[in-house]
Amino acid sequence: MLVEVNYLAVLIATVASFVIGWAWYSPLLFVKPWMKLRGVDPSVMDGKMPYGIMAVEFVTTLIVAYFIAEFAAWVGAGSAVGGLLLGFWIWLGFYATTMLGPVLWEKVPLKLYAISAGRWFVSILVMAAIIGAWR
User: Fold this and answer.
1) Phi and psi based region of residue 39 (left: phi greater than 0; alpha: psi -120 to 50; beta: remaining)
2) pLDDT range class, residue 45, cuts 50, 70, 90
3) Within its chain, how far is the Cα of 61 from the centroid?
4) Which of 35, 58, 69, 119 could make a disulfide contact with 24, Cβ separation 3.0–4.6 Å?
5) What is the reported pLDDT for 40?
6) Which of 102, 101, 94, 82 shows the shortest CA–CA distance to 120?
7) What pTM did the predictor assign?
8) What are the pLDDT digits (tens) for 66-86?
9) In terms of Cα–Cα distance, which of 101, 87, 94 is closest to 20?
């Protein structure tokens, strides 16, 4: 059963998450340790914007925001605080746990997990707070 969704809130939450991702993986925050842990040569990415990848990321984030809005309606998270609580549980139950698999089985460095999981922690909380506040 689908419920009523505030599509403007979903779009704004998506843009907010996209901006968080941009800042997270920029020289302002974690691009250098992320590139080192991933084994990426900084000169390869120098000045090049991966527009195709960014477009796919925007669409996938839009889908996440839409489902956060669905979950918020189902559980009655109709405030920023309710959204934050929902966002925390979504992050813990779906992101933090599933992103840990590669650390355990594929020898992905724990620091790389922390960077990526941290980005999604902040993004999910912000998206859910926006959506909850605009329900």
Assistant:
1) left
2) low
3) 7
4) 119
5) 85
6) 94
7) 0.91
8) 999 999 999 999 999 999 999
9) 87
